[in-house]
Amino acid sequence: MTLFSAYLPLEPLPNSVGKMRARPGVACWDGPGLRGGSRSNSVVWACNQAREKGGQGMEEVGYLIGAVLPYAALGVCLAGALYRILFWARAPKHLHWELFPYPRTTAGKLEEMIVEVLTLRSLYTYNRKLWLPSLLMHWGIYFLALWLLVLLIDLFSGNFTGALGIWGGILAGVGSLWLAFRRMGGDLKQLSSPVEYLNLLLVFLLAVVGLITGFFANTVEAREYLLGILTFSPKPPANPSFLWEILLGELFLIYLPFGRMFHFAAKYFSYHRVKWGEAD
How many Cβ atoms from other residues are within 10 Å of residue 139's Cβ? Predict the structure, then answer.
């Protein structure tokens, strides 16, 4: 029984002598005199009251996580992203690098950026030990982003979409765990800060919890929940275990614009204003 699962109705307990009986959602004294009389009624009433209060509390927590916090997390993420992008855009002009050939046409610039995003070519060149696990993690994230897009527009069948999410979760989980172990050994251990392990832990938990709870595979319930959020008619997911993945996703959105994982947005400025030496 999980934290967010519903409480089961109170069941009548058979007579026994002086024992505590524990059943799903029920914990009552099972002893002499519980079969009849005012004492029996009082105990049953107390158990019912405790069960109802506990169930109501869990429902409130589920509604908070599943229907309220998504909007707060999205708001913080968008505000933080806007702040950082404006900060980079208004930063003083960086010293232009003119020491190597760089693409001057739009097609050439797009080609270089696409190759870098899909292959992590610079990491392969300068730190090959981290390249493969980082590539697996990034491709897992790409798969999950594509899964989200395909899920919302209902482009393919549920089996294809579910497989896309499952493979994304596997690649992201394996890549992040492998990358963490690589950073723990040799000289990389001295160069790795705690925040980098925090980033990898967050990616790993998002991937693994999404696989365990079936959030990536159960496309019908996941789509129904996400569309409810987008159409401003939120309600907790039909599967209570999804709340764990939703909570992690909310923490990820809040943390994203303020951490190093926001480097994907910084690449535009690092390429256009620094690496390629453009004027404005």
Answer: 17
Give the domain ranges of the chain: 62-275
Q: Report how far residue 171's alpha carbon sits from residue 216's, in angstroms, rounded to the nearest whole number.
A: 13
Separation of alpha carbons 142 and 147, rounded Å: 8
Say yes or no: domain 62-275 is CATH 3.50.50.60.
no
10 Å CB burial of residue 90 (0-12, 13-18, 19+) is exposed
Closest CA to 179 of 188, 170, 169, 166: 188
| Cβ-contact 213, 247 below 8 angstroms | no
What does the pLDDT read at residue 59?
A: 85
Distances from the Cα of 87 to the Cα of 21, 216, 224, 264, angstroms: 61, 35, 37, 15
Q: Per residue in 129-157, pLDDT tens? A: 899 999 999 999 999 999 999 999 988 88
Place of tokens 């050439």: 108
Q: Which two tokens stand for residue 100?
A: 């190597």
- What's the length of the chain? 280
Looking at 25-157, list the stretches that DSSP marks H as alpha helix, in order from N- to C-terminal side.
Answer: 37-63, 69-89, 106-119, 121-126, 128-153
Q: Which residues pair with 19 in a beta bridge?
A: 30
Phi-psi group of 18: left, alpha or beta (phi > 0 → left; psi -120 to 50 → alpha; rest → beta) = left
N- to C-terminal Cα separation, the chain:
59
Closest CA to 127 of 205, 197, 177, 192: 192
3-state secondary structure of 229: helix
Higher pLDDT, 220 or 263: 220
Given this model, what pLDDT does residue 229 score? 95
pLDDT of residue 133: 96
